[in-house]
Each structure stands twice: as structure tokens, then as C-alpha cells.
Design a protein that fits this description.
Layout (H helix, E strand, L loop, with lengths): L3 H40 L3 H6 L15 H7 L2 H34 L5 H11 L4 H15 L5 H24 L4 H9 L4 H12 L1 H16 L3 H6 L7 H11 L4 H21 L1 H9 L5
Amino acid sequence: MTSPTTSLAARIAARAGGGAVRVFLVLVALFWLMPSVGLLLSSLRSPERIAESGWWRVFTEPAQITLDNYGQLLSNGKVMGSLLTTAEITVPATVLVVVIGSLAGYAFAWLDFPGRDVWFLVVVGLLVVPVQVALIPVAKLFGAVGLFETTAGVVLFHTAFGLPFAVFLLRNFFAEIPRELLEAARLDGAGELRLFTRVVMPLGGPAIASLGIFQFLWVWNDMLVALIFADSGSPPVTVALQQEVRQFGNNIDVLAPGAFLSMVVPLVVFFAFQRQFVSGVMAGAVK
């Protein structure tokens, strides 16, 4: 039997341990957010202030904060247009990967068709193919069919390279759905399409949300594919900011707010769907 003294000591140790863990996690979160905070504060300072001191001087001299840099950004048509171009690439590439990956994942998990296991092994094998290997062949193909330096070409490239991971992830998640549940739905007269939309998709929400976040972040932050395949006259924001650095190395009043806006969108998406993301990552870990 545990004595009251031992029980009290155990509770104090547990609370102290929990408090230490919380403090550690808060410190890690602050450390992780520090570059974002620094970029935000830099975007609110004049170029002269940025040149003469670090962004932390804002805490001792808050009067230097100004929105003039964002006014300069709004008047820069190239950078603002690049944000729209990035959205035009990211949203379709994410939606296509989620929709096609969900359909394929369901087919590999629950439909019987010739060569199902072989085709799934092919999909798994495509996971190890690096993007760099396909750049030149795909560029030649896109040039032959008229998709080179087009938004549609960039979307197709991201969709093609996002699908193997999507199919692999969703197939494994859908396969964990109890067979009895699907059989009961079939006995009630549900066809495959209704079974997929009414049963599988709601149950696969966490995994689908995680996939959507991964794909969105990857496409939004991509620079290599955009640099090669995107229209040079209307590039995504990553390429547009790189061109600003190359052409106007001291144009910090446009670069700082532009970089912050290009970074804050993925952060908002991640924090908005963090519950679904965590659920998707942990799905299957606890039975």
C-alpha cells in the first residue's frame, strides 16, 4: 500500500515534470517563431533603420514602426501579381492531389482489380524518384506539347510528383477502416461511389487534411520547379522575390514585407488545420 507521503511526493513530481515539459515546449515554440517575428518586425522598419541596427531594437524604440514598406509592396505590381500566380498554382495542385489520391487510395485499399498489388508497388517505388531526375525530360515533354512556361504545366508537375505520396498515405489509412462497416453499407444498398463519399471520405478526414497541408506547403514554398517551368513574365512569389534580390539588392522595403506575406499564408493554413494535421499524423498509432 502506498503511503500518503509517497503519494504526495509522486503528485508533486508529476506536476513539476509536467510544468517543466510545458516550459520547454513554450521555449521551443518561441525559438521556432523567432525568425517569423524578426521578419515581421523588419518589414515594419524603414530601410535606414534596418541598415543601422537589428530588428530587436523595435522593443526599445517602438516609434520606428511604420507601414510604409507595405505601401511600397502594394504598389509593386510584379510582387503582388506573383502572389496571385502562386495561389493559381497551389490551389489546383493541392485539390487535384487530394481528389485523385483519395480515389486511388480507396481503389487500392478496397477494390479488387488485376495487378492491384503490382501497381501499388510501382506507386511506392515512385516515392524514391527525386524531382531533379525528371526536370529535363519533363521540360522537353512540356515544350513539345506547349505546356512549358505555363501555369498549367507547373500544376501538372506538382500533381504528378505529389500523387505517389498521396496514394501511399491514403491507401494505408483507408485500409484500416473496419471491413464490417463497409459491408454493412453495401448491404444497405450503397454503391461504390456513395460508399466512398458517405463513409470513407468522412472517416479519412484527418489523413486527407494532413495530405492537403503537406501538399499546400510544398507547392507554395517551391522555387526549383517554378524557376524552371513557370512563366518568366508572371512568376510565383518565390521566383519574384529572388528576381528582386538579383536586380535590386538593397530593395529591402519591398523584399521584407513580400517575404513575410509569402511566409504567413502557409503559417495560417497550418495553424488553421493543426487539429486535423495532428489527428492524421497520429492515425493508426493507437488502436
